Known about the structure:
The complex is a heterodimer. Chain A is 50% helix and 10% strand. Chain A is of the alpha+beta class. Chain A folds into two domains: 8-159, Arc Repressor Mutant, subunit A, CATH 1.10.10; 173-345, Glutaredoxin, CATH 3.40.30. Chain A has a four-stranded antiparallel β-sheet with strand order 1-2-4-3. In chain A, β1 and β2 (15-22) form a beta hairpin. The radius of gyration of chain A is 29 Å and the shape is elongated. Chain B is an all-alpha fold. Chain B has four helices and no strands. Chain B has helices at 2-17, 30-44, 53-63, 66-71. Chain B is 63% helix and 0% strand. Chain B starts with a helix and ends in a 5-residue tail after the last helix. The longest helix of chain B is centred in the N-terminal third of the chain and has 16 residues, at 2-17. Classes of the chains: A alpha+beta, B mainly alpha. Chain A binds chain B through residues 248-249, 251, 253-254, 256-261, 304, 307, 311, 333-339, 341-342, 345-346, and chain B through 24-31, 33-34, 36-37, 65-68, 70-75.
Amino acid sequence: MATGISVKDRRYFLTVYNNCFVGSDAVTWLVQNTHAQSRKEAVLLGRAMVKWGFIRHVEGDHTLKDMTLWYHFTNKKLGASAAGISPTETASTANNGSNSSSTASLSSISTSNLNTVRSRASMVSFAPSSSSNSASLNNLSSSLSMSNLASLASMAARSASQPIQTPARMTPSAEVVSSYRALAQVGAMQQSKSTNDLHAAAAGAAASASASASASASTSTPRFVPPVIGGVTATSRDIAPFLLWHIPGSRSSRVLWLAYELDVAVEVTPMKPEHLKRPEYLAINPNGSVPAARHGDLPLWEGGAIMEYLLKFAALDSAKFESKSTPGAPPSPASPLQPPEWTQVNWARHQMYSYWSIVTLDEKLFGFGSSRLTNSTSASYALV
Amino acid sequence: MTTWFNHVVAPVLQQHLGDSEYINGPNFTATDVYVGFSLFVAETQLGLLETHKQLKAYLHRLMARPAFQAALKGWQ
């Protein structure tokens, strides 16, 4: 590898870095010499080499990236690496000794190191119980993070020309379903006054089977269970009406439409565009926009956030929800509305919204940021 | 706006929609509410759906729902 890519002294302002190479060059070399099938895979391989101390960023600031960043070869020996070296150890032993080594020896070391990386990767992923290597494997696996294991497993699968084993994909819908169940149980327990401490209730609902039994018994009553989201108590909300400030025909129609679809009782306050900037409305929503909503003591702004709140609210309605939620099973196709799927599709979008609301709040990127948005906006997002 | 819609928005929506009834398959989901209102504005205020028969049919399916008609009374 060291012979294939340009290794030379490079100057960054006043600092000269000896015998370094460019990260993107290394990636190109790994791909061209069929050590990796794609640049992405080459980066993964390079990261493993950094992790095990075969190469190192000149300042130790970066793992291998497909960028114009500079790296040294370290002079790490194979014997040391085969014994299983923890990342902390490699960090301490990584040095700039390669500066004085000859290019030829660098080449042989790093190429064989590359093979070591590969073979170790395949050992980790395919022969974890091999008795001959069990000692070093134990060291190795304890020194690896889970993400590294996953990436190495896929790499090793490819290099061993076996079918690519993508890690079992998480099933968000099942997860979301179970979290909804946990929330529903918390709500039900609160309703049955079995405990006063909601956090204890949450822990109990997640852990104990008796809690779920009592919850399913009490959730047979077809009424809204107060949402307990993000640890916020909402005792007043199960009887409070859902208030919506709405300009007919505007984007707040989305919220109204969804509320009608979900059979949520809504009290609509019709608005006109010229009312938006009046002080009495700014007291309700300082952003001066529709939709705004209020459920009990909880103010809600932004259509996406309100819709998500409504969906959780409806999902916590056990009568609608219990019939379609079996742990681990996907939602029944017969269910009229499927919050988990919706969450998957739109989650990225809402991450974006909440990101900007937080950025403008905390970092004051824009002049109007901190004055327009108050903490309640982020509180609304924290809930959904 | 028209170019953006025809070349960016519409193909993505078409791809998601496919031949199915709603955007996530045969069942109505909350995504349809979110997307549907945008399509409704695109159709009624901007007239962007004339060349997209499939999206227009999808929008009309949504507009036939009682909840839609209740929420957007007088705006169709």
